[in-house]
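Notes, p. 3: input format for complexes.
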Amino acid sequence: MILPVSKCLHIRKNCDIWGMTIRKILFIIVLLAGCLPLSGQEFTSASAVRPASYAGNQPRFHALLYYSDQVEEAHREFSHQAIDFFKKLTVGDGFVLDVETRLPEDLSVYDVIIMPDVAPGDPAERVRFQQYMENGGGWVGFHAAGYNDLSTGWTWFRDFLGGMRFLCNTWPPQPGLMDVESRTHPVTKNLPEHFVAPSSEFYQWTPDPRSNPSVEVLVSLAPENFPMGLKDVVFGGDFPIVWTNRAYRMIYLNMGHGDECFSDATQNLLFVNALRWVVSQKKEGDPFER
Ligand code: ZN
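Output follows (290 residues plus zinc ion):
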């Protein structure tokens, strides 16, 4: 049957209207699907995230920063910036930070001791520190706090570090490309594979810290830096910069010379990670888990 032209136009118009309506309905369904709550696997993974744990008014740990003003100026600069840096991290009273130039008699109250520029030289303080560490104490040491040579006369401290003494250094202080060696350790897992550390003096050690099976090197000076130095030039070799001696609850970071060490977010993150990790390893339990 041949429909009149006007009837054909009418049917086509109805079809167009229905077509548009169906398209609109489909469009709305798609939109609504996007707004629905997470379901299935997505919902499971979202609900698996633990809620935040607020410390409230209860500090999670007690730290001591031990430093000296009787050191070279560049080390003093670093110490005073370190005091500011770690003080800022206590905001909201998440932890207590005491700052001292003498080691207190009772170190047992401290979960961690931060040493930005020097290790104890006084015989009584050395004994106190050794006893503290051997009883499960925590240590975050920077730069000159790990310095020891044949004249230091503290064998225990050398063994505590991993058995090495100072060999040589780069000079003048300058930035250095770092290789982050561990992608899984809590101190480095959120760092990039490489970063440029702000200007510092970097030490090389003998024997190589890596020769001690208890030592785990986390960051080292990248080979691409060599030859490095304008006055004292270092041509290569292994240059561990951050490591832990697993025989103790400790970490050593060789950064710490001058007033630029806290100017880089990546390195600052490394410092926070180091503090947090040492504290989290307490044998009485991880205070961030309560
Ligand atoms: Zn130095």
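The chain has one domain: 61-282.
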